Amino acid sequence: MLDTPLPPDDVSLLDAYSRAVTTAVERAGPAVLHVAVRGRRGAGGGSGVTVSPDGLVLTNAHVVAGAEEILVTTAEGRPLPARLLGQDADTDLALLRAENGAALPAATLGDSAALRVGQLAVAIGNPLGFSSTVTAGVISALGRSLAGRGGRPIEDLVQTDAALNPGNSGGALVDSAGRVIGINTAIIAGAQGLCFAVASNTAQLVLGQLARFGRVRRAALGLTGQREAVPRRFARALGVAQESGVLVAAVQRGGPADRAGIAPGDLVLEIGGVAVTGVDALLRWLTGDRVGETAEVLLLRRGDPRRVRVVPGEREG
């Protein structure tokens, strides 16, 4: 049986799609590495992306967690020892230095803020041990959030239907120009086409801090809490539209919240003029530049509104 030829327009579209994918792979593929680790718990691995010719490599924190020895292998099959410069469990990113005398092919980090849903996305990595594997799809959604391994939600994730499998972690998600728009990090077990990457703009910020400090600075209040509904009568009386806040469960003795007079049972509604609708919103506010910055907190204590001033400290670890 003869195949029915495609109309010229469809042929042109397929050719354009193929050219876009192959161009992206030719530009970014040489910068994607295989990452092998050994530690007390045994061996493991994933992928990584070289982001500077002198051997800086971005990967996932969970790929190198507990590693005592790290070996990266270039796309052309050259093994190189690597050392961990820093990691950040809250964004699942880690920075390695590949030890190499010569310059390495490096990828360019793109602007994830300019992404549009529906545009081409190409994933490059080493799934299930198959090196330099390419899958393609589209950007399915932007601004997704998933719980990170450090407890803080990973914000501004890029969702794609480009197939990812174990071993893709730490690899590159690139656009049609071969620019890295995300570092592949997670899949939803049992689902199809639900894959996520840490946005390149987030990766750029984390990269800078890991290279400089070996960690990412974040602020802390020294309290634990949970999302709690705001009683309607109090919301109306205060003139606030939010339906929930953070109910303080415990306060660290001598910590910033304790010094500010915040106590267990308080319902935090705002900090620094920003609505606190849950623990995730509070954590989003507690960035590194908040350390030492005085902020006003609006809270409810047994139904009475109070305003206190707090000076966040630096989060440990």
Can you characterise this structure?
It is a single chain. The protein is of the alpha+beta class. The protein has six helices and 20 strands. The chain has a six-stranded antiparallel barrel. Strands 7-8-9-12-11-10 form a six-stranded antiparallel β-barrel. The protein is globular, with a radius of gyration of 23 Å. The model has no long low-confidence stretch (mean pLDDT 89).
* Share of helical residues: 10-25%
Which strand order do you get reading across the main beta sheet? Answer: 1-2-3-6-5-4
Which structural category fits the helices and strands?
alpha+beta
H/E element sequence: HEEEHEEEEEEEEEHEEHEHEEHEEE
Largest sheet: 6 strands, antiparallel, barrel
Give the radius of gyration.
Answer: 23 Å
Our count of helices gives 6
- On the 0-100 scale, what is the average pLDDT? 89
**Low-confidence runs:** none
The total count of strands amounts to 20
Please state roughly what percent of the residues sit in beta strands, choosing from under 5%, 5-15%, 15-25%, 25-35%, 35-45% or over 45%: 35-45%
The separation of the N and C termini measures 66 Å
Q: Give the overall form.
A: globular
Q: What's the structural blueprint in terms of helices and strands?
A:
Blueprint: H1 8-28, E1 32-39, E2 42-50, E3 56-59, H2 61-64, E4 67-73, E5 79-88, E6 93-98, E7 120-125, E8 133-147, E9 153-160, E10 172-174, E11 180-187, E12 195-199, H3 200-213, E13 219-220, E14 223-229, H4 232-238, E15 244-251, H5 256-260, E16 267-271, E17 274-275, H6 279-285, E18 295-301, E19 304-310, E20 313-314
Antiparallel strand pairs: 1-2, 1-4, 2-3, 3-6, 4-5, 5-6, 7-8, 7-10, 8-9, 9-12, 10-11, 11-12, 13-20, 14-15, 15-16, 16-17, 16-18, 18-19
